[in-house]
Amino acid sequence: MFRRSRSPVLVAAVLMVSMGLRLAPWGQNRFLEDEALYAAWGLQIATGADPMLDGEPVDKPPLYPYVLAASLRLTGSTQGGRAAETAARLPSLLASVASIALVYALARTLYPGQQDEGLPTLAALLLALSPFDVLFASTAFTDPLLVALGLGALLAAARGRAGTAGLLAGLAAATKQQGLLFLPLVLAAGALGPGLRRGGLLRLGLGFALVAAAALGWDAARVQRPGFWQQSLIAYGGLAPVPGEALAERGAAWLQLVGSFWTSPWVNGIAAVVLAAWIILAAAGRVPRPTKMDAVLGLFFLGYLALHWLLTFQVWDRYLLPLVPVAALLVARGVVALARSLARAPGADRRGVGRAGVVAAGLAFAVGLAGPLVQATNSGLPVGGDHGAYDGIDELAAAIRAEAPAGSVLYHHWLGYHYRFYLHGAPLRLHWYPDVQDLVHDATVYRREPRYIAFPSFRDGSAAAEALQAAGMELLPAYETRRRDGTASFRLYRLAGP
């Protein structure tokens, strides 16, 4: 089944299935805050309104906003709305599918002697069927592109293309700061292969430095200060060791997210048993010991997870997306190792039994993941982007465009990023109020202009409403949106008086 002549057909089938799974949730959800912000940056660049983001306190490296801008321009979606949503999601979809192909190529490169046992196809299948990975493919987060570039750097290093590895590692870091965490893995892959021989380390460093210089040069050329690195520390609050009393709770939360890679307790159990059995049998000499590259992948997985556990990283699911392809490779390696041990039994057809074991494991994973994948394609798992909280934000924006005359004031406390994207180009004055005193003051000063305010149902806007009413203003209902479950999501009011 896994002869090389059939491998392209199998991987093409896996890629087609993965594309279908990742397209299924499209259009079901609106953007979360960061997605809306990144897409708004892309619109600023694509429309020429602010091509250097000089008016923005940018806390990310520059590559991703320009990728979004290119997608928006190429698809003709610079007017905002649903078309711009789709264009902003497109890089993540392409990166997610590319990551599956890269995992296949990585398995062929790192473990050339195990292609007949189906290791590359099984690793690609495990990533393709990950509900975690499926749901991030329909978001506008930076992480899918970061993962694809990191895997590309790893593949280039493993194949001895040090300069390309450096360029791709640099592009990963220019997408998001966490891309720097791929560097040890890329260096290790190069050291274990031909990549760092004959000046390879220098070429890798030059490739990385070229991209880093471009990113830092862009940052230095901008008017807005501080730069993206300092701004990220301000926005994030910095990183520090986690207090001892919080370690247990954080550890449980991170492990729960690891369990979300394949969601199903049954599938997670199989994966855990496979890895444990592989380690135990290897220690007993029943199967070949894990290779140095296996150890590097395992240490990267554990080290990356420990870093996020022990430092004050937010417990956000997207931070673990780089670990999903690593987990897929390791689980596939374990399956093949165990299948080989079965093939060594007296009287067994070594090749036939080994292939049958891999096929059985692949089918077991596919059957076990059917339910979670149905949930994922219907946005029924709490992973990835929004799952209903922001339903109707696009309808709210359309209602504001239709209702509010040019020059109107729109007050906001929670929806600024969303307004900047969904109301891009609207002739309105957006005013963020830090507290109700500022809101009342501004609404009083500009009482002769049309004034609007919207409250999301998942935030308590009663203090703002009461303060406006106490100042003699009336909140006149103008529009209401509803979620897919029928509950109210946003309420828009026009202010009257004093």
Could you characterize the architecture of this molecule?
The chain is of the alpha/beta class. The protein folds into two domains: 4-377, no CATH class; 393-496, 3-Layer(aba) Sandwich (D-Maltodextrin-Binding Protein, domain 2), CATH 3.40.190. It contains 21 helices and five strands. Strands 2-1-3-5-4 form a five-stranded mixed β-sheet. A hairpin with a 5-residue loop joins strand 4 (474-482) and strand 5 (488-496). Helix 7 runs antiparallel to helix 8. The model has no long low-confidence stretch (mean pLDDT 92).
User: Compute the gyration radius: what is it?
Assistant: 25 Å
Structural class: alpha/beta
Range of helix content: 55-70%
Specify the overall morphology: globular
Q: What structural keywords apply?
A:
498 residues; alpha/beta; D-Maltodextrin-Binding Protein, domain 2; five-stranded mixed β-sheet
Write the layout of secondary structure elements.
Blueprint: H1 7-23, H2 33-46, H3 63-74, H4 81-110, H5 119-128, H6 131-136, H7 143-158, H8 162-175, H9 183-192, H10 200-221, H11 228-236, H12 247-259, H13 265-283, H14 292-310, H15 323-343, H16 350-368, H17 370-377, H18 393-403, E1 409-412, H19 416-422, E2 429-432, H20 436-445, E3 451-456, H21 462-470, E4 474-482, E5 488-496
Parallel strand pairs: 1-2, 1-3
Antiparallel strand pairs: 3-5, 4-5
Helix pairs in contact: 1-4, 1-5, 2-3, 2-19, 3-4, 4-5, 4-7, 5-15, 5-16, 7-8, 7-9, 8-10, 9-14, 12-14, 13-15, 14-15, 15-16, 20-21
Quick recap:
With 498 residues, the chain is of the alpha/beta class.
